[in-house]
Amino acid sequence: MASRIDQLIRRAQAVAADSQPWPGQFLLRGLEIQALLSRLDVPRGARILEIGCGNAIGSAVLAGEAGMVVATDLPRPDKSSHSIGMDMPRRLLERLDVPNCHLAAASATRLPFPSHSFDVVFSSYVLEHVPDKSQAIKELRRVLMPHGLLVAFVPNFVERLYAPFFFWVYLASRFAKVRSRRARNGTGPETCAKPAFGRALRETYPSFPLPNPHGAYASSAEELRNHLPRAWIDRLTRGGFRVVDRFFLMNLPANAASLVLGDRGMRLYGYFRAVDRLLGGSAVGPALGQYACYVARPTP
Prior knowledge:
By secondary structure, the protein is an alpha/beta fold.
């Protein structure tokens, strides 16, 4: 299983690297699904629905384990929900030639499928971007078979603790580029448009000095509270699910290495996948992992 996924990820990097939103995204999604499949048996012939598929690399990987995958996302790019539309996933699936994976434009809060249509509903870092999470979870339960599985990758609160560090590194790199560009243009560092830079900073990052919330929340503090493990479990329970398994990912902060090493940093993370899985499934996982995976079944 791992070698098949590794081969698909290498092929995606060769033919569709421009579909990645950031270097190493294919590698990380492959490692996450490997971690999932090491704990979960997907029945051969299973019908899988992915909501918010993004570039559809997750659907492409899961298609090798399923009878059919339907990958959904909003029809057009939408910055507020981080949706990239359907053109990029279409190109990726065509380049990878995944015949049992089909695309459908749909919102997670209004799915165009009959009730009890799928054996597995898969969500990869989508629920945090949906303003009406209760309605989305209700829809996921509706289209899921009574004994089906919901698999939801979501941020853990630890991610918000790291976020200021990554935010400040990003801002420092942006400021350095502005100074360098002004110096090349002959204006000198003393006239590097500090007021304009400061105004743009305040307009782009109203939560400064903290990063803006990444999901559909009013602030980073609200986002942190809503990403506590208990908050995710309570939300799923209220939506008619019972959590049957969970594990945590990025217990080793490989994304910090990726700031410097790019794609090589994520490959380095792959070498330590066994350690990360061990930590993620242990009692310390909730306090270490930046991300979490919850596996749940509908309650009767």
